[in-house]
Amino acid sequence: MKKYKVGVVGATGMVGQRFVSLLEHHPWFEVVKLAASPRSAGKTYREALGSRWAMPTPVPASMADLVMYDASDVEKMADGLDFVFCAVDMKKDEIRALEERYAKAECPVISNNSAHRFTPDVPMIIPEINADHMKIIDAQRRRLGTKRGFIAVKSNCSLQSYVPALEPLRDFGVREVLACTYQAISGAGKTFETWPEMVDNVIPFISGEEEKSEKEPMKIWGTVEGDEIKLASSPSITTQCIRVPVTDGHLAAVFVRFDHKPSKEEILRRWKEFAGEPQRLNLPSAPKQFLTYFEEDNMPQTRLNRDQEHGMGVSIGRLREDSQYDYKFVCLSHNTIRGAAGGAVLMAELLAENGYL
Asked: Locate the Semialdehyde dehydrogenase NAD-binding domain: which residues (predicted)?
């Protein structure tokens, strides 16, 4: 297998750090360049981080002394790279422009950012669910006038706990979904040290999160038609997103109504047997068991189960019939691994295996 030379743009932020830690021993991807804001440029990665490293493992020795680039110095950063992961903290229009500059410099962009999620020819991929959307890249390259360059994005972290649980049930006609998500502080790029007001507190508002949680599944479940991805028209989804005092892990309470109500046994069987392209291809970051159901009434729990399958699995529990909807259940995913950097790494593996990188 070819070893790809990779850059991380936005390497000092929470998701950028997660990229760096996940890629330390990656069998296919070697991080050779790191970039962040102009104030980090010229410093070593360790110097640029200062005291902000928030991962459970030390700063990777292979990257600690890499000299940082200015993320906006696209030509220098992109030179010699096969592709970049992008997780910058900027205004949306600035991110859109920056990512397109990298793509036009013939450097593919695997993005954690939301700026391009609704660009019609940019695929937003959860690899187990809509791997076929990668074929829109050909149309995007024609628009950009590139041979290699393109942009592919991952979806918002909040919906990656409950959308995978609904995917194996879609042929029963998932009609209406209500989801309340209880989201970790790392989703805001914070720790308890940097956000002490979250200790012993719950905040019932996360800016923009409910809109993303309700609309992004429509693109994931959409269809590639011509030069764009047409959004799905159903199911109807309503969400409420709440910030809770945990470090990592987004928990969702889900209520669902079907056109053709399945049995509980059939739902459990579908979850157990569900697998996608990453499992078929045996990609390095793919969880062996994507969806895991827990029979115990008090499971899954955020602290105990967020690292299921190295943080790449989704944990489900408490499936039962509901008095207003057909069924309700809870599910959990690691927001900075499956929901952010890990999901993007898995998408890059999928794209590499299919010849796009």
From this structure: 5-137
DSSP 39-92: TTTTSBHHHHHTT---SSSPPPHHHHTPBPEETT-HHHHHTT-SEEEE---S-H
For the record, the structure tokens of 139 come out as 């149309």
| SS3 of residue 276 by DSSP | coil
Handedness of CA 183, 184, 185, 187 (dihedral sign): negative
98 to 107, 139, 200, 344: CA distances (angstroms): 12, 20, 38, 18
Q: Which of 157, 241, 331, 334 is catalytic?
A: 157
Q: What CATH number does the domain containing 168 carry?
A: 3.30.360.10
* 195 CB-near residues (< 8 Å, 6+ apart): 185, 188
> Do 126 and 178 have their domain in common?
no
Query: Are 193 and 317 in the same domain?
Result: yes
Same domain, yes or no, for 134 and 166? no
Same domain for 140 and 162?
no
How far, in Å, CA of 85 to CA of 342, rounded? 11
Q: What is the pTM of this model?
A: 0.97
Distance CA(252)–CA(231), nearest Å, equals: 23
Question: How many domains is the chain built from?
Answer: 2
157 is catalytic: yes
6 has pLDDT over 90: yes
Strand spans (E) along the chain: 4-9, 29-36, 69-70, 83-86, 109-111, 151-153, 174-183, 223-225, 228-230, 236-243, 250-258, 291-294, 314-321, 327-333
pLDDT tens profile 268-319: 999 999 999 999 999 999 999 999 999 999 999 999 999 999 999 999 999 9
Task: Say if residue 2's pLDDT is above 90.
Answer: no
Q: Model confidence over 44-98: pLDDT tens digits?
A: 999 999 999 999 999 999 999 999 999 999 999 999 999 999 999 899 999 999 9
Alpha-carbon gap, residue 260 to 58, rounded angstroms: 50
- Looking only at the bridges linking them, the beta strands covering 327-333 and 314-321 are antiparallel
Active site residue 250: yes
The CATH number given to whatever domain includes residue 50 is 3.40.50.720
Bridge partners (DSSP) of residue 238 are: 178
